[in-house]
Amino acid sequence: MGQTLTEKILSAHLVEGEMVKGSEIGIRIDQTLTQDATGTMAYLEFEAMGVPRVKTERSVAYIDHNTLQNGFENADDHRFIGSVCKKHGIYFSRPGNGICHQVHLERFGIPGKTLIGSDSHTPTGGGIGMIAIGAGGMDVAVAMGGGTYYITCPKVVKVNLTGKLQPWVAAKDVILEVLKRLSVKGGVGKVIEYCGEGVKTLSVPERATITNMGAELGATTSIFPSDEITHEFLKAQGREDAYTPLCADADAVYDEEVNIDLSKLEPLAACPHSPDNVKSVSELSGMKIDQVCIGSCTNSSLLDMMKVAHILKGKTVNPDVSLAIAPGSKQVLNMLANNGALAIMIDAGARILESACGPCIGMGQSPNSKGISLRTFNRNFEGRSGTKDGQIYLVSPETAAISALTGVFTDPRTLGDAADITLPEKFTINDNMIVPPADEKDMDSIEVLRGPNIKPFPVSEPLAETIDAKCSLKVGDNITTDHIMPAGAKILPLRSNIPKISEFCFAVCDEKFHDRALELGKSIIVGGSNYGQGSSREHAALAPLYLGVKAVIVKSFARIHMANLINAGIVPLTFANESDYDKIDQMDELKIENIGKQIANGKVIKVTNVTKGFDFEVNADLSDRQKEMLYAGGLLNYTKQNS
Ligand code: F3S
């Protein structure tokens, strides 16, 4: 029986377990990436492991999230990361060099390799034929130390692309169509593999837009084959040597199949406040808008920017609209400056931002109250923009640019004939903002520079015999990591200071949670389905750990967040009968006796609601390794015990 591309790459990297769907497998990791918001913690964790030099083929630290410097905190963190990189063998992409996924695709990604990154949009690398997975910072730290990375052996979904996109219909519309069909939960436990004749019509940046936003499906990752188009892209990046042709076998067997005729797609928009709340742009056409933001790791490639410049050329941004554009990398910005496209954007009235995440992570450009903002980004969760009642619509760069001119939601197909915009044969290459690590022989002389913002991370205790604690918080369905640990310009600089950042934990749901949890000393959180969806941020586990949360009982978990809870030593449990969720109130006392033994004995665990006087069952769906990690009190304790 033939293999899918996913199976080929995973089995070539398999170090533990068997390729049985649904079982845990351990894989070797070739490359890692971090961004600064999660990276500071990941490098503190790496240091704690005591490994002198990274053992991966390539590890890169990017500074792209916390690039505003309103105080010393971000600058201190950047200096810390830079010095750790120099000492321990990691490449350091300086602030201004661009967004991690865009730069990694341009300069480091290699078809057929495995990559984990402490950022949920790491699957962008699938656009170049990598198995690229978003993970917690602790997992990345362990992988840098040469440790195995564990995942559930995924099901593989074939997305069969046929036809060719019509003029002004974009790669963004392809992934919005997939999200519309499969929903934000549709990819859980699965890899989305793109196949079919239509693949050949999509460039690498377009493929990367699609794999990037596969994260919004909850998928483990998404992947495209590596073919002549990948070859041309790598050649244009001066990295032809990195090319290997890769595709699924003709007789590969898939678990599910989705068929998309590219020629039938139309421009789409994800409406507030979920990436799967998709409508056609023509349905929304005419709605007045306040702001347009173009950029982010989803849509900031040279190709995207050239299309935007083409639409803006000789025109003026509508007087009622603020248009902000953040090219994805120094390479993109440099090329736009040299080919005149930047002047076109400036001339039209665009506000040019630095090559960084910027508004996507709430670093500036929050819309006005109730403001309607069209963004080419990947997430539109409530409050993420920094404006609580902001209405964020996710659209293609083409829809964004034309709407910025008209001041209303506008279907880009009204532009008429397609523009002939293709990738250059040669990109401008200048890696002077990527600092290589010091030679191994010099590493001892390098001092790691720590400012006062760098505080040690909280270490959890080995699992107690009994958890007897009050429910400090009860929340509903689809709680995102932005609810648990919000981002934004005020909060992000505190990412290396867990006691301080914990003050904002769940503040958007319940301002008193922080004080209540600290007062209780230990507690349990109860939630609904898809708990922890969204980003990979391990702070959404580390802040609750600091606040004494011992277990989280929910209807279902998002994959990365559940892994982060286990890494932090917090027990993730799911209701055996979802109706029991309704019988628990906040501040009820919940007791789990002999929890370690119960976990060891099997999946079903008894919990007593002491306040209301009834028992209910929960599931601990854990691998043996995850159980060991919980007994030890999290991944770091476990790694130390086993090294
Ligand atoms: Fe940055 Fe937003 Fe992507 S925060 S890494 S541009 S999802």
Automatic annotation (TrEMBL):
Coiled coil: none
EC number assigned by the record: 4.2.1.3
MF annotations from Gene Ontology: 4 iron, 4 sulfur cluster binding; aconitate hydratase activity; metal ion binding
UniProt cofactor(s): [4Fe-4S] cluster
Domain Aconitase/3-isopropylmalate dehydratase large subunit alpha/beta/alpha: 7-407
UniProt keyword Nuclease, yes or no: no
Protein family according to the UniProt entry: Belongs to the aconitase/IPM isomerase family.
UniProt cross-references to NCBIfam families, sorted A to Z: acon_putative (TIGR01342), PRK00402.1 (NF001614), PRK07229.1 (NF005558)
Organism: Hominilimicola fabiformis
SUPFAM superfamilies: Aconitase iron-sulfur domain (SSF53732), LeuD/IlvD-like (SSF52016)
GO cellular component: cytosol
Listed name of the protein: Aconitate hydratase
